[in-house]
Structure formats: C-alpha cells, structure tokens
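A.,

Following up on our hallway conversation. Structure tokens first:
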C-alpha cells in the first residue's frame, strides 16, 4: 500500500515537473516571438535592364570602311577603338590646313615682334628706337621660323635705311643752316660797318671834305648788302622749313610702318582664327575616322559590311549595350502591395540564373514607382518599380540585360508574434459579419 502511494506521489511530481517545463518552454517561445523580428517583404518579379540606353555607333561624316576592330559580344571599355574609316582625304586636308596655320602663326609672331621692335623716339638720332628681338618659336618649324626671321630683319633693315636717308638729309640741312647763320652774322656785321661808314662820309660831304660821288658809292654798297642779308635770311627760313619737313617725313615713315604692321597683324589674326576653326574641324574628322566606344558595354548587331565599302553619313554600324557598376531592375508589383512601397526602400534582388543559396543576391534600393497601373497583354494589372543595385556582379558572375529576377522589397520589420497573431486578428475582423 505504501509502495503504491509512493509511486503515485512520484508520478504526480514528474507530471508537475513536466507541466512546469512545458510552461517554461511555452513562455520562452512566446517571449522570443515577442522580441524576435523578421523582415516584412513584398515580392515582385523583375527583369534586368541597362541603366543607360543602348548606344548606337555611327559615323556622322561617312567614308570608306577600312577595318572592323571588334566582334559580336565583345566587352569594350570607354575609348576602345571599334572600327576605322579611311582617313586619307581628311589627312590631306588637315595637313594642308596645318601648314597654312603654321605659316599664319609665324607671320603673326613676326608682326608682333616688329611692333615691339620699333618705337618712336625724337631724342634718337634716327627719330625712332629700333632693336632686334627674338621671334617666338612655339608651334613653328625651323624652316618656317627662318623665313619669318629673314623677313623680320629685312623689313627692319629697310626701315633703318629710310630713316638713315632722312637723317642724312637732316644733317645736310643742319649744316647748310649753320653755314647760312654764319653768313647772316657776317653780313650783319658788314652792314653795320658800312652803315657807320655812310654816316661818317655824309658828315664829310656836308663839310665839303669828300666828294658826293664817294657817298653814293657807299650807299649803293649798303643797299646791296641789305639785299644779300634779306636773301640769306629767306634762305635760312627755307632751310629750317625743309628741316621740319624732313622731321615730319621721318615721323611719317615710322607711323606708316607701325600702322601697316598693325593692319597686317589684324588681317593675319583674323585669318588665323578662321583657319584654326577649320583646322580643328578637320582634326575632329580625322580623329573620328577611328570610331571609339562611348560607354563600357557589350557589342551587338554589327552591320555586315565588306572592307572598302562606302558608309553613308550617320549610318548605324553597331550597337553597344552599356554595362555599369550598377544594375537597374524593372520590377512588376501587384496592385494589392503598391500601397506599402516607397521610393528609397531597400530591396534584395535574387537572380533566377544563379542559385540564391550558392551565389546569394544583390542589395538594392527602390528608385521609381509608376504613378498608375499598367497592363500585360492578358489584362493583368501591375505597377512598375525600378530597383537600382549597388554592384553589377554577383560572386564575380556576369549579369546581363534580360535576366529574370525575384525582388524582395523590404517594407519594414515585424515580430514573430505579430505573424502568429495576424490570422487571428484577420479572423476577428471578419467575424460576426453578415455574409
């Protein structure tokens, strides 16, 4: 009897212990469910599309196809050569334009140096300061520079010669003027003495000491001497006027030289500006003869053309599907879920081509949500959303436009308990209603 009682007591204790353990486990599970959070996601189906539009490769000027440097499906980087256009006609025109530009540049440098080399200076014996300077050599070949320098020295030498002639004439005028001044001084002195002699003779004639004939002779000499003095004075004025004229001529030579040089410089500068523009255009055409990739991407749809065939201006030769450091996923979201999605929400992109367990997915962000629903051919409604990823590869595996994806848009987080209670809350909300 005692053994039976003890067995029942032991069984009761074990049952009580089991109830306590179950209660603790249930409490622990509920407590965990209360605080453990899971991501709340909206699932959409998407397709990888290029971030940039497909780039069409064309040549605006056209020409003769020389060589195709890429093949279908080749990955190219920005600036990689794609095809070559025969540049012969552009190269010849560019070479001719470059030579003309070089010649104009040398002329402009020479004319600028000439303007700096000549300066009007009345204190100089030539009436101008002339110094030979170095002409800039940048952008000019030695042969063209030598021709420009020879012209430069020749023009300065010619200017110096003209000024030298005028200066020599000035020296002659100066010498003649000095001689005439000396002659005038002598005539004035002689006239003074003659006039004194006439006065004395007049007194002697009045006293009857000298014959009147002697006085008349002296008066005739005085009149003649005054005439010579007037002629000498007039000649001096002519010499001085001639000297002033030569000085003006010398100034005019310098002014004309500088004005002519400036006019030439203006013309050359205008021509140089025009030829520089045309030369730049030809250089651009020459550079475009080698068509290069504008973006990083994959080559496709190469037009089959034989080498030497004529390419029309603007003709599309191939296309490049851009590949960026980011991907854009065109995602379809069901209308019942669109109210919970906002731009900026995080998302996880899973690619059907790569096992998610092995390769994982890519992190992304919602960048666009369509304002209105769109429809498939079968009439199914959906909203369009764009998801931009942070990288363009998954575990070093390539991702190309057209790949299918599953997009999990993370709208928030809920506890496990919220998920458990959701059916009950929904049932409660639908209970006690008239069907």
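Then the amino acids I'd put at each of the 435 positions:
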């Amino acid at each position: 009897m005692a053994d039976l009682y003890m067995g029942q007591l032991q069984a009761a204790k074990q049952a009580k212990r089991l109830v306590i353990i179950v209660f603790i486990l249930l409490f622990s599970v509920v407590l965990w469910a209360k605080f453990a959070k899971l991501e709340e996601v909206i699932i959409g189906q998407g397709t990888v599309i290029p971030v940039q539009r497909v780039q069409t490769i064309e040549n605006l000027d056209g020409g003769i196809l020389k060589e195709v440097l890429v093949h279908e499906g080749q990955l190219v980087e920005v600036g990689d050569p794609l095809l070559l256009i025969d540049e012969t006609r552009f190269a010849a025109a560019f070479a001719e334009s470059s030579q003309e530009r070089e010649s104009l540049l040398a002329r402009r440098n020479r004319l600028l140096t000439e303007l700096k080399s000549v300066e009007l200076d009345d204190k100089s014996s030539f009436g101008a300061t002339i110094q030979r300077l170095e002409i800039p050599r940048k952008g000019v070949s030695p042969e063209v520079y030598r021709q420009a320098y020879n012209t430069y020295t020749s023009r300065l030498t010619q200017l110096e010669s003209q000024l030298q002639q005028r200066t020599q004439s000035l020296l002659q005028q100066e010498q003649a003027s000095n001689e005439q001044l000396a002659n005038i001084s002598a005539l004035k002195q002689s006239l003074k003495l003659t006039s004194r002699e006439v006065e004395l003779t007049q007194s002697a004639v009045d006293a009857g000491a000298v014959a009147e004939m002697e006085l008349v002779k002296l008066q005739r000499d005085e009149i003649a001497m005054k005439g010579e003095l007037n002629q000498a004075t007039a000649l001096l004025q002519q010499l001085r006027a001639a000297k002033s004229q030569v000085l003006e001529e010398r100034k005019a030579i310098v002014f004309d030289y500088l004005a002519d040089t400036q006019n030439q410089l203006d013309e050359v500068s205008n021509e140089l500006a025009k030829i520089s523009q045309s030369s730049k255009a030809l250089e651009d055409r020459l550079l475009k003869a080698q068509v290069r990739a504008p973006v990083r991407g994959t080559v496709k749809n190469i037009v089959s053309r034989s080498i030497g065939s004529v390419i029309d201006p603007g003709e599309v030769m191939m296309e490049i599907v851009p590949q960026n450091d980011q991907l854009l996923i065109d995602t379809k979201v069901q209308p019942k879920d669109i109210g919970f999605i906002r731009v900026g929400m995080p998302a996880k992109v899973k690619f059907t081509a790569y096992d998610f367990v092995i390769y994982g997915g890519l992190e992304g962000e919602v960048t666009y949500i369509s304002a209105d629903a769109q429809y498939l051919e079968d009439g199914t409604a959906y909203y369009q959303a764009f998801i931009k990823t942070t990288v363009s590869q998954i575990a070093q595996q390539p991702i190309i436009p057209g790949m299918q994806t599953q997009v999990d848009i993370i709208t928030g987080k809920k506890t496990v308990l919220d998920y458990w209670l959701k059916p009950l809350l929904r049932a409660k909300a639908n209970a006690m209603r008239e069907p």
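Helices lie at 2-35, 88-117, 142-207, 212-288, 356-359, 416-430. Curious whether your intuition agrees with the design.

B.
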